[in-house]
Amino acid sequence: MENCTEDDDMQNGIALFQLTVYIPVLSLGIPLNMIAFWVFCFKLKRWTETRVYMINLIGSFLLFALPFLMYFTRYEHPIDNLCFTIQNICFTNMPMSILIITLIVTDRYIAIKFPLKAKILQSPLRSASICGVLWIILIIYSYFHPQFLDKKEKFCFRKLPTQPDYPLLVSIIFGYFIPLVIVTFCSVQVIRCLKKKSHETKLIQKAICIISVNLCMFVVCFSPFFIALLLRFAVDVAGACSLLLKVTACVQICACLANSNCCLDAFCYYFVAKEFQEFPSLFPTCMSMRSKKNQSQESHPARHQVMI
């Protein structure tokens, strides 16, 4: 690959864009996340799997890393322990957020579709254990990621790759696109289950709306960033230095939208808290529908055999 040099004007423009996005995110995100953390830790009476996942989703240090990220983008900061720490926070936070959202949606899907198995598989302690294992795996993976072990780099967050990053490609596939398929499938199945009720109540409509909004936020916030990463990987493979700077700038801009998700989630925390109190009454409805269907099949064994 030909020698690539940074465009100072482009880098200053990215820094200005980050400032425009991250200032409101910090102003809203810090108080909202603190309130949400207090609600989920102390205000809710019953510990549930989703409550455990939400506490892990809120308990992220990304908000506190954003000021350093803006500084590193604007100025040439040498790679030191502070840079290494901020890189690890940014590298682990987004995959963890995606995985936790995936776990929440999957947990809701299992509770509706497989209520008997859910009683065995689901528990707050098991959810906490899963989150702990995921945190450990991501921290270890980020620590040994080749991007952070490259001794040729001089400045923090200023890496212009000279060869394809295949571990990053694996991270994109397993860290986002597979969870995207799972989240989409589970959300659609839950919505279909709720819509099967003969007469939709306001509570069901509210549940469908919240699930749909959460799915849209997941897609809108994260998809542009990971698509941009795929484009950068393709440019690295092709060795097109002229496109590399533009694609890298696109990655940094899309990262602002993805990182702002830590603030946007706070707007949904209230509705999720209400979901714990109201929505469980909807799940027995879906379960009873499945139970009635099974009973109907048992009461007409001959007809059931014909259908099979």
Give a brief description.
81% of the residues lie in helices and 0% in strands. With 308 residues, it is mainly α.
Describe the overall structure.
This protein is 81% helix and 0% strand. It has one domain: Rhodopsin 7-helix transmembrane proteins (Rhopdopsin 7-helix transmembrane proteins), CATH 1.20.1070. The protein has helices at residues 8-43, 49-58, 62-74, 81-113, 115-121, 124-143, 146-149, 166-195, 202-238, 241-259, 261-278, 283-299, 301-307. It is built from 13 helices and no strands. The radius of gyration is 23 Å and the shape is globular. By secondary structure, it is an all-alpha fold.
Architecture blueprint of SSEs:
Blueprint: H1 8-43, H2 49-58, H3 62-74, H4 81-113, H5 115-121, H6 124-143, H7 146-149, H8 166-195, H9 202-238, H10 241-259, H11 261-278, H12 283-299, H13 301-307
Helix pairs in contact: 1-2, 1-3, 1-10, 1-11, 2-4, 2-6, 2-11, 3-4, 4-5, 4-6, 4-8, 8-9, 9-10, 9-11
Write down the CATH topology.
Rhopdopsin 7-helix transmembrane proteins
Label the structural class: mainly alpha
Let me know the CATH homologous superfamily: Rhodopsin 7-helix transmembrane proteins
What value does the Rg take, in angstroms?
Answer: 23 Å
Summed up, the domain count is 1
Largest sheet: none
What shape does the CA trace take?
globular
From the 3D coordinates, which CATH architecture would you assign?
Answer: Up-down Bundle
Order of helices and strands: HHHHHHHHHHHHH
- The percentage of residues in β strands lies in under 5%
Number of contiguous helices: 13
How widely separated are the two ends? 61 Å
Query: Helical residue percent?
Result: over 70%
Question: Any idea of the CATH class?
Answer: Mainly Alpha
Please give the number of β-strands.
0
Could you list the spans in which at least 5 consecutive residues all have pLDDT below 50?
A: 294-308
The whole-number mean of residue pLDDT values reads 78
